[in-house]
Specification:
The protein is α/β, with parallel strands linked by helices and about 300 residues long. Helices cover about 30% and strands about 25% of the residues. α9 (about 220-230) packs parallel to α10.
Length: about 300
């Protein structure tokens, strides 16, 4: 796995787009998120369908075509420096194949921020465009609105990426000791598994540092997903693994046994409770950047800043 093209950092006055590729957005939370972005000196613009609701499926923010059109228009607008996802949920898989990838490529590298269901877009942008992205808080999510650490780590990554080239686990515990070098990738475990066999699936994990987390999955389902990755060859050659949050995934001691059983035999460093994903104060993790993972120190040290 090779490092990907890094977009440029943001500067005060930059215009950024907020879009909803997945689930429906709460208007009040969106307004609060826009106020926060303005306080950072950014100029946020909102896609025309961000507050839509799908006419048949209440778990989607508008129709697939409209969600894709918003994303496409934002990315291809030459005045837009970054595309920030409003929230996750579900729906990115339904719109990702409606995007015009030739047009997105021609628009050049820009910053993409999101997590959870946005894992689909992280994978697609890595595989199809060779572009590094940011696994970080979303513009209408409570963690972004209420947690200063989540806000500050994302702000620093966007504006002063050289200040956060060493990312320290918020908790951090060694599951398997050691250090590993590789290129970061990953996201929400269930979305990585459901991407297998799609046009955006990676050929493999060789040389990669896998960063995974999830929410609302019982231990046996985490076991099943990890087993599928193992059986499909999806973890062959992985260099190291950092585990984020596992909110609402049942008793953690049972889950920890599953993680140890399924990942411990890979012979690579594994660190748990790193502090990214569906947790309070979630850290922003760059994907597509060469780094060193130290499982005992609980650190991810980037070879260069996340953004150029």
């Amino acid at each position: 796995m090779m490092p990907l093209v890094r977009p440029s950092r943001l500067a005060p006055g930059a215009r950024v787009a907020v879009v909803a590729p997945s689930g429906p957005v709460v208007e009040e939370r969106l307004a609060a998120g826009l106020d926060l972005l303005r306080a950072w000196g950014l100029d946020p613009v909102v896609g025309p369908h961000v507050l839509d609701r799908h006419p048949a499926f209440p778990y989607l923010a508008g129709t697939d075509a409209d969600r894709a059109a918003d994303f496409q228009a934002a990315w291809c607008d030459p005045d837009i420096a970054a595309v920030l996802c409003a929230r996750g949920g579900y729906g990115a898989q339904r719109m990702v194949d409606l995007l015009d990838w030739d047009a997105l490529r021609a628009a050049g590298p820009k910053v993409l921020v999101g997590f959870s269901d946005i894992t689909v877009l992280h994978e697609a942008f890595a595989v199809r465009l060779g572009l590094a992205t940011l696994h970080g808080p979303m513009a209408s999510a409570l963690d972004f609105l209420k947690n200063e650490r989540a806000q500050e780590h994302l702000r620093a990554t966007l504006f002063e990426p050289e200040s956060v080239t060493t990312i320290r686990a918020s908790g951090g515990a060694t599951l398997v000791p050691g250090r590993a070098r590789g290129v970061t990738f990953g996201g929400c475990l269930c979305m990585l598994v459901t991407e297998l066999g799609t046009p955006h699936a990676r050929a493999g994990a060789r040389g990669g540092l896998l960063m995974i987390e999830d929410i609302g999955e019982e231990a046996y389902r985490v076991d099943r997903m990890l087993t599928q990755l193992l059986r499909s060859g999806g973890l062959d050659g992985v260099a190291g693994i950092a585990l984020g949050s596992w909110k609402e995934c049942g008793p953690y001691e049972l889950l920890r046994q599953v993680l140890t059983d399924r990942l411990g035999g890979l012979g690579v460093p594994v660190v748990e409770d790193f502090g990214f994903g569906h947790c309070d104060g979630a850290l922003t993790i760059p994907f597509g950047v060469a780094a060193e993972l130290d499982a005992e120190a609980g650190t991810l040290t980037l070879d260069e800043p996340a953004l150029a």
